[in-house]
Amino acid sequence: MIRSLFAIVVLAALPACLIAQETPKASPQAKAKAAAKAPGKAAKKKAAPERPTPTVADFAYGQDSPRQKFDFWQAKSDKPTPVVLLIHGGGWRGGDKSGYGTSAIKPYLDAGISVASLNYRFIEQAMADKVEPPVKGSVGDAARALQTIRSKAKEWNIDPARIGATGGSAGACTSLWLALHDDLADPTSDDPIAQQSTKLACAAVSGAQTSLDPKELREWMPNAIYGGHAFGFAAPGRGRPEEFDLLIANREKVLPWIKEYSPIELVSKDDPPIFLDYPNQKTAPVIGENQPDPTHSAIYGVKLLEKLKEAGVEGVLSYPGHKDEKYGSIQAFLIAKLKAE
Q1: Is the peptide bond before 133 cis (omega within 30 degrees of 0)?
Q2: Domain chopping of the chain, boundaries
Q3: pTM of this structure
């Protein structure tokens, strides 16, 4: 039913989106919209960084897409090792597990922590697969990868109770979703992988979006434009501002999805420690003011930290001018938490 409603809304909105073009005397708002056009277009490919040879490469954790694969590096240890999941960013529309190089992998291996870097379906691929909402394809794939890794605990010398996640931007949002969501394990399933837990021991992320609620985001940052694609409002030639406008117009219809996939909606007292880093924050994050980078603003972290404190969950927020002094970095936080006795 909701799919048919989406079709009506999107078809009705399409002509307006196609004819909305920037004129020579465009306003600052129009210029900002033009700059954010076509986020799904593939960026120029960069050469993959050097990295250690994986213990297991391109391990398939699903059968729905060639993107459902991860690489795994097993740390040398006589005892079962913790694991760090590396979940790449790219707006759930780009990026690849090969983007993590030696500097992102070796410090964990040196600390006796195994590493997995995973791919997952993009929004457009999930839409083609008729996943509703499309973001479920991206974050659900990450959950399945986590369960698959846990199912290999004995074979790969893993401690299934000590798994953390990290990522940037959309990969950060996915990491937080895994950390804060109720366990998706299904003990009654005939699938042994589905029986595995999806809970994390910790998460440490960079530039995370903590809410996908357009109303809330515009209250936090009037120039917010990120999130419409997550709920099916992506289309060829349509940019983030138009996607966001459609999300605002249809917010009440998709509100259950917004609450299910916004990390801030999932906070509870039994959640693991969270580290939030916003290295691109160039000004003080003031609620209610436009942000230089509203998609990766520290305001996301400020608001999640409030929620974590209310629930009694350890949360650490770091950004330029407000640096965390206890841990100092994402890697140090994950190593400290996963190696704690």
Answers
A1: yes
A2: 56-339
A3: 0.87
Dist CA 164 CA 175 (whole Å): 9
What tokens appear for 74 in the block? 């097993």
Q: What is the 3-state secondary structure (H, E, C) of 10-65?
A: HHHHHHHHHHCCCCCCCCHHHHHHHHCCCCCCCCCCCCCCCCCCCCEEEEECCCCC
Q: What is the DSSP letter of 159?
A: E
- Structural element, H or E, at residue 83: strand 81-87
Regarding the domain delimited by 56-339, which CATH topology (the fold level of the hierarchy) does it fall under? Rossmann fold (3.40.50)
pLDDT along the chain (341 residues), means of 10: 40 34 36 43 69 98 96 98 98 98 98 98 98 98 98 98 98 98 98 98 98 98 98 97 98 98 98 98 96 98 98 98 95 97 74
Quote the CA–CA distance of 215 and 217 in Å, as a whole number: 5
